[in-house]
Amino acid sequence: MFSTKEGECVGFDSIWKVKRVYTTSSAQTTEFSTQENGTNTALSSTTETQTDTESVPIVSDVDMNKLSDWLQKIYPRVSRELNDSINSTAFKNYKVSRSTEPPAVKLIQTIKVQDSNSDNVCRVSTLSWNATGNTLAIACNQFHKTWCYHPGSVCLYTFDRYDKMPDVPNKRLTTETCITVVRFHPRLPSIIAAGTQSGDIILWNIQHDDGENIICKINAHEELVTHMAWINDMDIAKTPLLATSSLDGCLNLWNFDPADAIIKLKHKYQVKSPLLPKVAKLPTEPEEVSKKIIRGIVTFDFSPYVPEMFIVGAEGGLVIQCSLLGTVPLKGSTADVPISDPVYKYYNAHEGEIRKISFSPNRKEMFLTCGTDGEVRIYILDQDDPCKVISLENPLLSISWIPFCEKILVGCGNRGVIEIFKLLTGEALDIAFKDYVDTAVLTQIELNLNMFAATRLVIRKFDKFTINILVRGVKRWGCDADFVLEYDKQVMYPVGKFARYPRPIWNAKIEPKEVQVYNMVVNFGPAHPAAHGVLRLVTHLQGEVVQRLIPHIGFLHRGTEKLMEYKTYLQNLPFFDRLDYVSAMCNEHPYCLAIETLLNIEVPRRGKYIRTLMSEVTRVLNHMLALACHILDVGAITPFFWLFEERDKLMEIYEKVCGARMHAAYFRPGGVSQDIPIGTLADIYDSMSKLGERIDEIEDVLTNNRLWVIRTKDIGIVKAEDALNLSFSGVMLRGSGIKWDLRKTQPYEVYDELEFDVPIGVNGDCYDRYLVRLAEIRQSIRMIIQLINQMPPGDIKTDDHKVCPPKKHEMKTSMEALIHHFKYYSTGIEVPPGAVYSAIEHPKGEMAVYLVSDGSSIPYRCKIRTPSYIHLSAMNYLIGKGNYLADAVAVLGTIDVVFGDVDR
Prior knowledge:
The chain is built from 19 helices and 44 strands. It is an alpha+beta fold. Among the domains are: 71 residues, no CATH class; 354 residues, Cytochrome-c3 Hydrogenase, chain B (Orthogonal Bundle). The strands form 12 sheets. The chain has a 6-stranded mixed sheet, with no helix packed on it. Strand 26 and strand 27 form a beta hairpin. InterPro entries: NADH_Q_OxRdtase_suD, NADH_UbQ_OxRdtase_49kDa_CS, NDH1_su_D/H, NiFe-Hase_large, WD40/YVTN_repeat-like_dom_sf, WD40_repeat_CS, WD40_repeat_dom_sf, WD40_rpt. Belongs to the complex I 49 kDa subunit family. Keywords: NAD, Repeat, Translocase, Transport, WD repeat.
């Protein structure tokens, strides 16, 4: 009869949809489902009809209009049948409704707030729910617009386990003046803020039992506080700001620090509007008519989806759209307290005063305004005119959106009833009120928006000093234990959001349940002393054994590669010193080689020797620091001081050669910046001669030390195959037994003229990498002595004056040399277009630069390949499942990471 088809089959307002229609040779099954807005529970009904065994011809299409008419006709009967089947006596305190009337709003409790010193009933001015939805704050005092000294109080009521409030407030907070508005903190349920008739802001912590619970108080406005709201800070994520408004025309944003109990003014906004809004200035109109004046703010609301946008209702029925961005500074603004005009545009003013402005919680661009002229206007932010206007004979005093029902509004007014409006038509829906005959004026309506509260409550406030608590629909469902015991295993249990209560135990036996055990998560860093920088390791532990390890980086990211695209080639050189700041000259080496390859220039022989010499001195410096930190992390301390003593001697040589201990900027395109001073080679030779003896002492103390071997042997093992797959290089690769060194395989500078060996490990653990670093220090000492003995005379940089600056004595005698010097350091070197990949054997591994030139003096792209980033990416492999947390320190020390090299 039907062919397979899915989609909506009924009108816009219906909640019924065809879920699946299919046919077989023996049966036909149709499923209908209904789903209320804002819920995830669907009610379904399946009907099977037995037919003949002969095949039924399948119709190609369905007349959806006829099917829609048919479903709309049978909808009330199907709805009643579903209610009868679902709302059975298996659910406690639930009465089956067999009538066709819509659900009623039921009055469940009435509260009268009495004075603490007498039996008189207090007048209620305003109220608010806390973040958890179980505490109600009621402000009791005289409410008027003239200056007063009447005392005020805030009564706090808390729901009990039966969803009832006590007749006497759980706590009472007192003030010296009348309270105009109260608001709970959105994330801290115990913090409540109040605005007073005198313009003060008071904040309480209702958890404190001592004194009056006041944590701070400040004079915020010159007039009474008309409205107050907690909003999200655009500068700091998830940090609420307190926004307050007053008849003095100011909207203030306050920073509240709950830890120190300090409230501080962040920004002040003044709303100004012409005397005749929305009217163009005529040529003959006097100046004072079009002049802007400060308007008192009656109410406001911030958009929940666009935090910088808010709507203000000002005196005179003005509706003004404002923005925190692009504001105009006003007179009196200072650096500490900036004052701005946030007005973005004006809407058509109401003929009466503004009562309420509220953004829709469901539609991010929609908001409503309600005035004493009896109009409720629905606006879209991008439109100047309202998209819907609801005109009422009796104006509403308060109105609110219904969460998860974007087409429904609820309001209250002088008639003393709650009116519910359908947004599409603007007509009031007919609803029934149980247990309610009072006809007092309703002045405020407040919805409990907490989805985890026991029931969704509607609060309305009377001028006759009473508070009525109503519940929409029925109470929460829950299984009746007596019914379950009587009809054992014959009840379909509620699922999803209705499964509030656990199933009863059928007998004395308790079936074993599979319990999900969660591992403990420990953050190693980013402030840990053994993290070697700002490293954060999220470790999942089972006892002391690591199950999973996730490295988090980026805390030191500076955007170096992007910054280099805005500097000349020479100006980019200091950026490399700040990558691996332990091995500054080795960082500069691949960058200079890449520029020289694109320029097709040759470095003089003495310049090459000096570069190679200082690279090996840098290698010794790096390995000594890596060994010292590794030794200290594991627990030894004496070799740490020995290595740092020797390292400081080499740092003095660094300073003699280039004038700096860390950021050298010594290597330059075409050579080096200056020649080695006289006598420095002899100092280097003396230091290297004594360094070998110090290395022997370290080996005597550590290499065969039982504790050192236990902490490093068979820890952080890297197999040779895995080292290649993980793109390891340097000591991390050679420690696994692979003899790969760019100084041997792809020699650069004068490494092909030197005699040295490449040490390798056997097991690939921390102990092998320790031995490889010691051996590499000995090989570097061997090469440094060869370079000192073979140091040739000559120039230290190329003679191409387009690449190198002129000498100082030439600048003093030649104007052309002075102009050349100025052009060299201002505009830079123009490098021919092309791309080159240049790599060197860095102390930590292979460091490379991929340089792309477009023919200008600024690099088009410079990609840096640093070894620390590659090695740190394998932390989960190195300290993976089965290792102890204490081994993470040993493995991290043997990797030798520097976070200037990782984050860049």
